[in-house]
Amino acid sequence: MSKQYETMIGLEVHVELATRTKIFCSCSTQFGGAPNTHTCPVCTGMPGSLPVLNRQVVEYALAVGLATNCQINQYCKFDRKNYFYPDNPQNYQISQLYLPICHDGWLEIETESGGSKKVGIHEIHMEEDAGKLIHDEWEDCSMVDYNRSGVPLIEIVSEPDMRNAAEVIAYLEKLRLIIQYLGASDCKLQEGSMRADVNLSVRELGAPEFGTRTEMKNLNSFKAIARAIEGERKRQIELLEEGRAVVQETRRWDDNKESSKAMRSKEDAKDYRYFPDPDLPPVVISDQWISRVKAAQPQMRTEKISYYMEAFGLPRYDAELITGSKRMADLFEETAAICGRPKEVSNWLMVEAMRLLKEHEMDPDRMHFTPAHLAALIGLVEQNVVNRNVAKTVFEEIFLNDVDPERYVEEKGLKVVSDEGALRAAVEAVLEANPQSVADYRNGKEKAMGFLVGQTMRAMKGKADPALVNRLVRELLGTVRP
Q1: Which residues form a coiled coil (predicted)?
Q2: Residue 291's CB: how many other CB atoms inside 10 A?
């Protein structure tokens, strides 16, 4: 009988905070600047420079900790994590080991079986990011960009409570949504503002001791994380089945090859020779500060679902779908506030926006059209300036290019044709050109009616008033003989 194995998974999630300046200096945190243009003596580790803590970093860390049910260390400190690497200009990273700002929290996730479970959060600590190595294969050299050095991070360390990739993704999605709703980070995996390292081990089912864990790095999408978990789980089980030992190490995942390779042996805290940072005083967090951050917490997803159902009369399905993305929820609320038609806004977002997101393989966070333009389009449909089919074409232009719908409709000549004389002539031409369909309708085939209406709409390039076309077709069929 083959052995059964259990997978134990914990995550270290690094989140870049949405501050305008770095954690210990006033350099910009803006993504995408020319290399080494957002730097100063502090974030490049120049001798004699001194760090000064950015208060907003503490605010964001507190907010995330409170939203994830953590205990707050009201007296916390910064420590130096010593290691030597080219992207680390000081040869140490300022982090928190001994007294992190948050500890002993949890998140509740939904499982594949339809139940729920709590995933423990061991701690959340504040730290600075390192720089970035850029490898130039053409010149056979590596260069360093220190723009990211000193960008504020929180590291959220879970307990090893997850058992498969589905639970990991559920945890990450919930964590990302909480942080986005708080405004603490945009959590864009593709830009590195949310990064997850996976600690994974396997053991025989029922065994009391944990297996040897490995850490998987270089994971920049949920799909890559799921594939890496499955790949590493299989690799470790194969080693155990062959009677070989799993080595505690850090491994780099190659998503193109769907395999991993060893980077280095896995370090423990003692390897980094942590000691308290002598340049930074302890952070003392008062009860009043915690109360103020608590009071400023926005509606989270669960609260929004109830609010949308009560305030806007949306069905639960609509509310759950829209609140699944902060960007989608913001667009819904702002558009509904402008046009006063929440269900109509919901329909456009759930049907057309979702279709285009899937078609263009986009994340909802990348939708950049303005609520005013969607509201204006809804108004054009309501006023019968454009019909719904034309409106779908206009919405696609709004979605992709954020065009002004009123101007676009005017420039492209897309207004509804409501001239009864012109439409009557078009319908007559269609009936004359399709005698068989006319005969079919006369013989009780209702589908023929739809065909004739469709042909008329096609002849009018989709710009006709559908209700008027339907009436005219029926009216003229009543006078035409097969």
Answers
A1: none
A2: 10
